[in-house]
Write a structure and sequence with these properties.
This protein is α/β, with parallel strands linked by helices. Helix content is about 45%, strand content about 15%. Strands 3-2-4-1-5 form a 5-stranded parallel sheet, with helices on one face.
């Protein structure tokens, strides 16, 4: 039976970044100014309203819809992490809680060791830059995320993934997974010919 994956390329907010959020906000304000940062924040808020509306249209089969999330580690504390970030103001994680309330299953998605490497790069100011090291790490994360979906999304199940726009997992997904883009295609080149 075919598997379906609803793919939402996302833009991270400071609330999603935890301890790095304040530093990112200061860097952004220094680069584009306070007024520019406020305009950008308004556009990001609008984006998340669109995502929330689109998620409301995705059919949820209780226990047969799995939700995967960028930077959510495979661990025993997935629900607590999601609740904490939603409580800190993350629109993304608030949507995850809404999907879970409708019967979707929250899934740890990323390898903790790769997330630690990403954190180290981000603290050094290299995480968002296209350095060979950052690009290799992003590819390793993409391969892990795709393998996680391939292994946990059962036949006749649907998945929903929220993944930063630069990720490119399509080349690593099993061929029976039909990918649906409810809003936008990712910028990271996730455009295999077999996409839905």
């Amino acid at each position: 039976m075919p598997r379906t994956l609803h793919y939402f390329p996302i833009v991270h907010t400071c609330a999603d970044l935890g301890a790095l959020g304040a530093s990112v906000e200061r860097t952004k304000a220094a680069a584009i100014g306070r007024r520019g940062a406020l305009r950008q924040a308004a556009r990001i808020d609008q984006f998340w309203c669109e995502v929330e509306t689109a998620c409301g249209r995705v059919p949820i089969a209780a226990g047969k819809t799995r939700v995967y999330q960028d930077a959510l580690p495979v661990c025993d504390h997935v629900e607590r992490i999601v609740k904490d970030l939603a409580g800190a103001g993350s629109a993304n994680h608030r949507i995850l809680l809404q999907l879970a309330a409708r019967g979707a299953v929250l899934m740890g998605t990323e390898a903790p060791d790769l997330l630690r490497e990403e954190y180290v790069l981000a603290k050094a100011g290299l995480g968002a830059k296209h350095t060979p090291e950052a690009d290799r790490l992003l590819d390793r994360r993409d391969r892990f995320i795709a393998a996680r979906i391939n292994a946990t999304l059962e036949p006749d199940e649907a998945g929903i993934i929220f993944l930063g726009a630069l990720h490119a997992i399509a080349p690593y997904l099993d061929s029976d997974i039909q990918v649906i883009y409810p809003l936008y295609r990712p910028m990271g080149g996730d455009t295999s010919g077999r996409r839905g």
